[in-house]
Amino acid sequence: MSEFTEFFSFSDANVRYVTLGSVLLASSSAVVGCFTLLRKRALVGDAVAHAVLPGVCLAFILSGTKNPFILLLGAFITGWLSLVLIDYITSRSRIKEDTAIGLVLSVFFGIGILLLTAIQHSGNAAQSGLDKFLFGKAASLVGEDLVVFGAVAVLLLATTVLFYKELKLLCFDETFAKSIGFPVRTLELLLTTLTVFAVVVGIQAVGVVLMAAMLITPAAAARFWTERLGVMLVLAALIGAFSGISGAFVSYTAPSMPTGPWIVLIVSMIALLSFALAPKRGWISRLLRQRRNRTQILEENLLKLLYQLGEQEEDYFSNRSLETILTKRNIPRPQALTGLRKLKRQGYVQHQQNGWALTAEGEVRGKRVVRLHRLWELYLTQYLQLASDHVHEDAETIEHIITPELEHKLIEELNYPSLDPHQTRIP
Fold first, then answer.
1. Which of 53, 151, 286, 289 is the most buried (most CB within 10 A)?
2. SS in 3 state form for 308-323?
3. Nearest-CA neighbor of 171 among 359, 273, 41, 64?
4. How many degrees, rounded to 5, is the angle at CA 343 between CA 341 and CA 345?
5. For the purposes of burial, counting CB atoms within 10 Å of the CB of 227, is it exposed (0-12), middle (13-18) or buried (19 or more)?
6. Global pTM?
7. In terms of Cα–Cα distance, which of 41, 87, 63 is closest to 199?
8. DSSP-assigned states of every residue in 400-417
9. Please, which residues have CB within 8 angstroms of residue 192's CB and are 6 or more apart in sequence?
10. pLDDT (average), residues 136-155
11. CA-based nearest residue to 201, from 16, 13, 26
């Protein structure tokens, strides 16, 4: 508890530098990462992260100092050049984007390692700590680094707000943006520049190896919680900021733990929880929705069977034994019993000693399922010219998802039919 109080009092200057730097890094890169993710260019961040290393090394060789502004300027130049080179290769050759990314990433990173090795063997005393750009070392951030981080973060966020509408259109409908005269190529270069800035500002904290995760993971986590871009940007920034603070806190309480990897680990855990727990797009929600769909299909199939048995005997409300129902369709007995009991609780069937019978509400619902099935069979035979003996399976699937609006449209298109392709009456 004392460590918690000491950390969040921010009385230690080093804690302030590391925490604020981590928050600025994580939140600003997460915002830019949203656009990169929506543009389906997630691997671009990885390419830029590896391509900045030769820029850092060249800047050090030419300047002879570890001034963060000079080093980040060199990183920006080679990072931006790598993205331009990827676009050039993709547009001027038959090489696809993923292949171009792999080529540029490996070549630039190889040159960076070569230059870094040469620097380490040069005997220059100022080279100490230069390898933190490879693996990151957020705990070594100082006030001068924080100024650079803050300036780049403000620039990223301000540009995103200023060009929000244009970037949104670029991500969701590039063709429409071209048709109304938007400078799509310029916007792509702007997004490229923002991506490079985001990566460059983060390599000093988490290194080139982990920076791609900082760019994409918060955006991917936020995407599971919303369908709106504005909300996604805010959520991604908050997830990034929280992971930055949490990573700094873990590093503070356990000094042997590196800050950067812990930031990435925490944001990855948040992403996994989002993938599982998000209300509409998460794994658990999807499993529950699939279970509800299976239950609905079982219930409607049972009501349809009872209605069809009633059609044969011209009596919809008589009792039918479970064996009689199962002869009409091969449903496992335990599933059929579970479905019938649930339909009884809902008031669609009633159970007596000698079997199961439809209620008035069950007869209406069963009739609709049968009607939808036969309407769809008729539609497939009339409009798609399918043979009448080839449409049953398709109708078995589609009958459960036809909405009342589509049902009305089908009836109009088919001119209010009375018979299906098998000359059976459509109820």
1. 53
2. HHHHHHCCCCCCECHH
3. 41
4. 70
5. exposed
6. 0.79
7. 41
8. TT--HHHHHHHHHHTTS-
9. 80, 83, 84, 87
10. 72
11. 26
User: Mean pLDDT across the stretch 98-124?
Assistant: 84
| C-alpha separations of 37 from 223, 260, 267 in Å | 9, 22, 16
Length of the chain counted residue by residue: 427
pLDDT-derived band at 270 (thresholds 50, 70, 90) equals very high
CA 209/CA 131 separation, integer angstroms: 12
The pair of structure tokens assigned to 81 is 């050049």
Name residue, tokens 């403000």.
154
C-alpha 212/C-alpha 42 separation (Å) is 8
Q: What is the pLDDT of residues 361-381, one digit of tens each?
A: 999 999 999 999 999 999 999
244 in Cβ contact with 255 (< 8 Å):
no
Please give the span between the terminal C-alpha atoms of the chain, in angstroms, as a whole number.
71
Closest CA to 32 of 218, 185, 169: 218
Question: Please, which contacts does 338-342 make with residues 24 or more away whose CB atoms are closer than 8 Å?
Answer: 338/298, 339/295, 339/298, 339/299, 339/301, 339/302, 340/302, 342/295, 342/299
In the numeric block, the tokens 């983060």 are attached to 202
